[in-house]
Amino acid sequence: MLRTFVLSAITAAALAASPLAQTPAASKGPSTALGAGLQVYVIDTEGGKAALWITPAGQTVLVDSGNPGGRDTDRLMDAIKDAGVTKIDYLISTHYHVDHIGGMQELAKRIPIGTFVDHGPTVEEREQVPNFQASYKELYDKAKHIVVKPGDKVPLTGVDWLIVTSAGEVLKKPLPGAGKPNPTCASFTPKDITSDPENGQSVGMLVTFGQFRAIDLGDLLWNKEHDLMCPNNPIGTIDLYMVSHHGTDPSGSPQLVHALAPRVAVMQNGTRKGAGTQAMPTMRTSPGLEDIWQLHWGYGAGIEQNSAGVFIANVDDNQTIANALTAPPRGGGAPGARGAQGAGGAGAPPPPTVVSPPFTQPTAPPGAGASPGQLPAGPPPGAPPGAQGGRGAGQAHSPAYWIKVVAQQDGSFTVSNSRNGYSKTYMKKK
To answer: E-strand spans in 100-252?
Structure first.
């Protein structure tokens, strides 16, 4: 009975959308004509990060380059081909974790990169990608290299690209029209986060195109979000929030999200990485938020916190999802008790949030097993005998779909899902 209910709920969620969101299918193919708007391809790196920005003047900025192994580079090159791009003008590496910089070496073999941008040397003694710093230097020695600090700008035509965090420092001088007290700061509770210090070094950026404003803070951590946004909000409000840290709970505080008050969030999550028990409700209760677009249906978010299927680029089949949601918890218990963070009942322990583990070079080809930052491949817990490990169990989606954003100077923007052709336009603020 529970399985039947879950399957029905999943199907309903996949079909649901508000009446205002019903639009014709998004067109496919290159759209690089000058003046077409500011375009963003948000690539599926299975819980990693890579986003390609293309300005109306034709300049390109790539924020992070995904995992090693070639799979993510293939996906990124598909978007580059779709966009008609022939070079990357700026490659911004937010920080040096494997899911953000692992694909850089392979990418550099396939397309010219003009300028490499970062926060400076790593603060972690053990590199998640072995010998990365040395090989990275070889790349930028043959091109250009910029170490940025808060207040710096990436020189682009017609787009203001402002660095707001870098190397643990944050922007404190308020931008024009900003600087008001942040009322959420009074309720801030710090988190004791001592692992993965590179996250707190993340290069964060505010992108402004006319009246359109977007923010991307990489994997900036909870306490650093407070440093940026408290006691006063130096940024103001935004239209698009590129969700911090894949939607995991060490980031995405109310002090950040509620003060920025985004209209739309785009989350670069994986099936079992991101869409956290704290991050999702924080976004959904943010004033003025209209939608959360996700790269994956997140198992941790369950049927309560995941967005409707039209807003999700990569979705497992219903049976695989049902197997995971109705499986007994690890260590025993009744079906459904493992608590899919909103779907499993009060007091149920949530599945673990995966946060950038130290990288071990995979021995299987891409797609054959778990990607870095995901749980091991295999059938979901509680699956019937003989069940195959579905994509929700850590295997790569094939094909992989991206989310695309096209913004206009008047502040309006359209977000589209390449899996189903669904798109929604958010009109300019009145």
So the answer is: 113-118, 144-147, 153-154, 160-166, 169-170, 180-181, 204-209, 212-216, 232-233, 240-242
In a domain, 43, yes or no: yes
Per-residue tokens: 72: 């993510």
CA distance 5 to 97: 40
Would you state the structure tokens that stand for residue 397, as one six-digit string? 């989606």
Number of Cβ within 10 Å of residue 250's Cβ equals 24
State how far the Cα of 6 lies from the Cα of 299, in Å rounded to an integer. Answer: 13
Specify the CATH number for the domain of residue 305. Answer: 3.60.15.10
Cα 183 to Cα 98: distance, rounded to the nearest angstrom: 36
How many CA atoms within 13 Å lie on the side-chain side of 409? 8
Asked if residue 94 is part of any domain, the answer here is yes
**What pTM was estimated for this model as a whole?**
0.82
Helix axes 2-15, 318-326, angle to 10 degrees: 130
Q: CA-CA distance, 277 to 265, in Å (whole number)? A: 16
CA 125 – CA 27 distance, rounded (Å): 47
The tally of domains found in the chain comes to 1
8 A C-beta contact, residue 323 and residue 391: no
pLDDT in tens, 358-369: 333 332 223 323
As a whole number, mean pLDDT of residues 191-212 equals 96
> Which one-letter amino acid corresponds to residue 249?
D
Average pLDDT (59-71) is 97
Range of the domain at 209: 2-12+37-315+397-426
The stretches of 84-185 forming alpha helices (DSSP H) are 98-101, 104-110, 132-141
Range 121-138 average pLDDT: 96
CB atoms within 10 A of CB 130: 11
Cβ atoms 113, 85 nearer than 8 A:
no
| Residue of 324, 314, 321, 306 whose CA lies nearest to 398 | 314
What's the token pair of residue 221? 């951590």
The pairs formed by 377-380 with CB atoms below 8 angstroms and a separation of 24 or more are 379/323, 380/320, 380/323, 380/324, 380/327
DSSP state of 20: G
Return the DSSP state at 80. Answer: H
Per-residue pLDDT tens over the stretch 6-27: 555 555 444 443 333 333 333 3
Which amino acid belongs to residue 5?
F
